[in-house]
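Course assignment 3, question 2. Fill in each field.
Student: A.L.
Task: Predict the tertiary structure for the chain below.
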Amino acid sequence: MLAYVFPGQGSQVVGMGKDLFDEFKEYVDAADEILGYSIKELCLEDPNRVLGLTQYTQPALYVVNALTYLKEVKTTGVKPDFVAGHSLGEYDALFAAGVFDFATGLKLVQKRGELMSQAKGGGMAAVLGLKEEEIRKVLKEKNLSSIDIANLNSPSQTVISGLKEDIEAAQTIFEEAGALRYVVLKVSGAFHSRYMKEAQEKFGEFMNQFEFKKPEITVISNLYARPYKAKNLRETLLGQITSSVRWTETIRYIWGKDENVDIVQIGPGNVLKGLTRGIKRDCQPLIVNDEDDFDDTDDAIDESGVEIEELNSSNSLGSKLFKERYGLNYAYAAGPMYCEISSKEFVETMAKSRMLSFYGTAGVELSKIEEALEYLKKNIGDKASYGANIMPDIMNGEREGKIVDLLLKYDVKTVLASFYINMTPELIRYKVNGLKRDSSGKVVSTNRVIAKLSRPEVLNSFLSPIPSEILSSLLSENKITKEQFDMAQNIPVADDVCVISDSAGNTDMGVAYTMIPTMVNLRNDLVSKHNYSNYVCIGCAGGIGTPDAIVAAVMLGAEFVMTGSINQCTVEAKTSDTVKNMLQEAEIQDTEYIVSGDNFEFGTKSQIFRKGVLFHVRATKLYETYKLYNSIDEIDDYTKKQIEERYFQKSFEQIYDEIKSTCSPIQLERMQSNPKYKMSMIFKWYFDNGTKLALSGNEDRVVDYMINCSSAMGAFNTYVKGTNLENWHNRNADVVGKLLMDQADYLLKRKISALKMN
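Answer field:
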C-alpha cells in the first residue's frame, strides 16, 4: 500500500516549488488570479518577507503541496491508497482525493489563512519528552484549564495552545514535570484550540458556497484520525480549526492497514517523514476492522431507520450512528449524578476523550448550575459533546423553565430527560428552539433530547409527535417562533432513548432481559407509525459495571450503554473521599432497597449502599411510622424520641422551620393544611440530610450516609481487583469507560469465535 502525507504550516521555505511552477503554468496562473499576487515570486523570492505570515504561508504551502502531488502522479502514474495532511495539509489531501478542485481548495485555504491571521493574543508551545497522558495530567493537576492540546505530533512531541501569557507561564511547570524541551512557537494565534471559535464560525459561513464531492481516495481526517465520510465531510473539515490534530493516531491507523505501507511526504521539507519514523519507533500499528465508522454508501445506513449489521471492533461496539450523531469514540455515556456528583470536571474529562456524559443538576442551586454550564461552554464549547440532565418539577414548576433558560443561554446541545411521564412545555421549548432546516430543506434538531425511561407508555409519549396544544401555547406566549412551530410538526421530543432497568437511586426494579427487547420493538413500531425520517437509538442503563454486562446489553439490542453507580467512585466525581473509600470496598451484595425520598408518600423504591451504614434501617423505620400515623402529633413518645435524638439529632420543629425557609409556596400551603403531608416532608428531610452528610464526608455521621448505589459498583470492584484500578485514586472517568468498552469488544469477539468453533 501507498500513502501520501502533506505537511502544514512550518514547512514553508523560500525556494520551495522551484521545479514546479513552469511545468504547471495553468495552475500557477489560476492561483495568481485568485490570490491577486504572484505565487511563484512569493515562494521563490519572498521580496516583501511575508512568507512566514499565516495569510501568505497557507496559500503558498497549499499550492506547492498540490503541484508536488500532480508531479508525483504524472511521474509514477500511480495514485496512493491513503492520503492525509497535517493541519493545512489536509486541504491538499482532500484535493488529491477529488473532494474539490484546485481553485476551490485555494479559495478555502486563502480564507482560512486570512481568518486565522486575525487571531490575536494567542500562543503555542511544543512540549518534547512527555506523553499525551502526562501532559493532560499536568494540565489538570496544575489547573491549566485555559490551555488546549493542539497537535499530537508523535508520542514525544505535543503542541499546546492557549492565551499567550498562559503558554509562557506554563513553561516552568512543564519543565519541572519532566519535559526535555519547551519551545514557545512564533505564532500570533492559539491555533487548533477553543480560541479559534470565531474564525471557525466565519469560515463555516464561507464554506457554504462550495460543493464537495465524495472522496475518490481514502482521506484520514485530523479530527478523528479515521477516514472522511462524504455525509459529514463539511463538519469534519470545519471541526479541524478548533480541535487537536491527531497525527500520531493518523499514522498508526494507516500503518495498521498494512505494516509494510509506504508513507511518503509530498511537499517541502522532511518534518512528516521524521514524525513518521518516531511514531513507528515508539508505537504499534492501530488495528481497526474496516471500518471504524459506518459505511459511506447512501443505502448502508442513514437516519431513515434502516439499520445495518454493526461491526464489533475497537471503538465500534454498539451503534455507529449514535457515535456519529454525538461525535463520540464509543457508544457509551455516563449518566448524571445528583448534587453535582457528576461535576463539571467529570463532564470535561469525558468530553476531552470524546465520551458523552451529563452534568447533574438535581438538587443543585440555579446559580451553581449556571456557573457549571458557563465553565463547560468555555472549556469545551462545541469541540466535543456533553450534556446536562433535566427533570420535571411538579412542586416548583418554575425551576424546570429556569434550567431550560440556562441550557439555551449556554448552548448545551444535549440533555438527558429523566422522570418524565408526560411531555412538559419547558422540555418541548428546549427541543423546538434547536430546530432548523439544512441545505436540502430537511428539519434537523441541534438541541438533542435523550429520554431516560423504564415504561412503555413513557416511550410512547417521547416518540409521539409533539402535542399540538403545547406548541400552540408556546407560540402564543412568544416562546417559539412561527417558523419553529411549523418545523415542529410531526417531530418527536426524543432523539434517542435510554431504557433503565434496575438501578441506583429511584428504580422500578425492571429486568433488562424483558425491557430492552420490548422497547426496541415498540421503538420500531412508533418510528414506522409516524414515518419519522430520523433513526432513534435505544440504549441500556442499570447494572452496567463490567464488560460482560455491556456485551449482554448489546446482544439484547442496546445500541449504546449508560453507566451510573461506578462513576461516583472516580477521581472527578464530586463526592467525599470517605464515600469513595467505602464504595471502593463494595461487593455485589452490599446494596439495599428502601423507600424513595423523592416519592416517599407513594412508597416507590430506591437502591442504596448499605455496608457500614444504618440509613436503610432508619429510612425503613420512618416509612413504617409514616404509614402508621396521620400526623407528627400522633407519634408515640418513644418513637418520637428515637427519631429526633438518634436519627435526626434535631427536633421535629427545628426541621420544620428549616423546610419552611426553602420549600416552594405550594409545598408550604400543603404542609399547613395537611398534617400527614407535613410529616412526610419532615421525614424526607432525613433523606436530604443523609445525602449532604455523604457529600461532605462528615465522619461523625457515617451511619446516616445516604449513597445511591447499585450492585454494578461491587461488580466493577471485583473486575478490577488486583489491578491499579482497585484504588479509586486511579479511576479517572474516561479511563473507566474506555476499559469497559474495549474489554467488552474483546470479550464479544472471543465469545463469537468460540461459538463458531462449536
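Instructor remarks: Confidence is low (pLDDT under 50) at residues 290-314. Residues 2-117+195-282 form a domain with the Malonyl-Coenzyme A Acyl Carrier Protein; domain 2 fold (CATH 3.40.366.10).
Grade: pending
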